[in-house]
Amino acid sequence: MNESRPSTFGHGLLAALPIALGYFPIAFAFGVAATGQGLTAVEAVALSLIIYAGAAQFLALALITGGAPLVVAAFTLIAMNLRHLLYGPALMKRAGPGARRRHAWAWAFGLTDEVFGAALGQLARGRSFSEPFMFGLGLGAYAAWVSGTALGAWAGGGALAGYPAIEAGLGFLLPALFLALLLSILTRLQLPVIAVAAVATVAVTLLWSGTAGILAGMVAGALAGVAGLGGRGDAR
Amino acid sequence: MRADLLILALVVGACTWAFRFFPTRADLSALPAGGWLSRFLAATGPAAIATLFTASALPLLQGGAPLQLAAGTATVVGLFLATRSVVVATLAGGLVYGLVFAAIKVMV
Predict the structure, then answer these.
(1) Cα–Cα distance for residue pair B38/B33, rounded to 1 Å
(2) Hey, are the CB atoms on B45 and A185 less than 8 Å from each other?
(3) In whole angstroms, what is the distance from residue A112 CA to residue A55 CA?
(4) d(CA A158, nearest CA chain B) in Å
């Protein structure tokens, strides 16, 4: 599994395909919702261009239209994105000690949940880490997110209302992508970590909120790893 | 574009970028293999992806869509095991989910 293959920008773009297919309809929905709640198309696209974090953007809409003060909205959205702190070290550990990170300031902008998952999946399946690969992966996903937002903002409210089955199928693409990514990195040793993360996510989501559930799931799963439930942690 | 919206986007965008970028600079070379931080980081990936799958599937389950969720999930698992392709499994899962959704609509 650890055979090393050269990873190019093109490989990254190809690996971004399922992410792009999942992102596009969600970004489209964001564009529709944003313009439906009084934002201009330029404002909707600007949020996607600058923030580039799906769940935070939907929450931003609710906060903005709900009249939340700027400081409160900013702190809420920043807190929501704290989970991204974990991704860089986890990815670089998997990439190995020789991995270049000279241009990380640029490609890390696109290190979303899905890009992190896809990168980890590719590394687990034997692809070597490279910065061009990360650029391709990130750019494919980013382009889908921004273009989906623009098209949604242009189409306006109710664009998919006449096609509920298509809407439903598109809505399942992200869970499907996460499941496929999970399968791609799955080992028997990590099953307890995955189980702990899933149980913590469900429990905290039901008891508190979805955002807290995501943070709790990630931290609980990682702590299960510290407790030795995920093996020694030195496998690459 | 409204100034308050632009400021909000810039502040949140800058912090999100910082959360994504600065941790990549951490020097991990001195980490002892099998140490607690190594185990933490190795478990973070599977934990994060499992969490995101659970968090994204939970609303579908709560929204009363167990049949299409089961069909879509089974398709993703089955096709991934058969093809080892994330793309094929993801697209087929979405397709089956939509088809089962449509079939239920027709029958009800």
Answers:
(1) 6
(2) yes
(3) 11
(4) 18
Question: DSSP state, B35?
Answer: S
Q: Which of A24, A178, A229 to mutate to test the interface with B (most CBs of B within 10 A)?
A: A178
Nearest CA in chain A to B89: A180
Helices within A16-163 (DSSP H only)? 17-36, 41-50, 54-65, 70-80, 87-95, 104-107, 113-124, 131-155
DSSP β-bridge partners for residue A127: A5
Query: Could you give the angle at which helices B3-21 and A70-80 cross, rounded to 10 degrees?
Result: 20
Q: How far apart are CA A109 and CA B25, in angstroms?
A: 14
**Interchain contact, A40 vs B56, CB within 8 Å:** no
Give the 3-state secondary structure of residue A5: strand
Q: How many CA atoms lie within 13 A of A168 on its CB side?
A: 26
Mark yes or no for CB contact B39/A21 under 8 Å: no
CB within 8 Å: B50 and A101: no
Distance (Å, rounded) from C-alpha B43 to C-alpha B103? Answer: 40
For residue B64, give how far its alpha carbon lies from the nearest alpha carbon of chain A (Å): 13
Residue type, A156: G
pLDDT tens digit at each of 236 positions of chain A: 444 557 899 999 999 998 898 888 888 878 887 887 789 999 999 999 999 987 788 878 877 877 778 887 887 788 778 778 888 988 998 888 888 889 999 999 999 988 998 998 889 888 889 999 999 999 999 999 999 999 999 987 666 677 888 878 877 887 888 898 889 888 888 899 999 999 999 999 999 888 788 888 988 998 998 887 766 555 44
Structure tokens at B43: 């478990």
Domain positions in chain B = 60-108
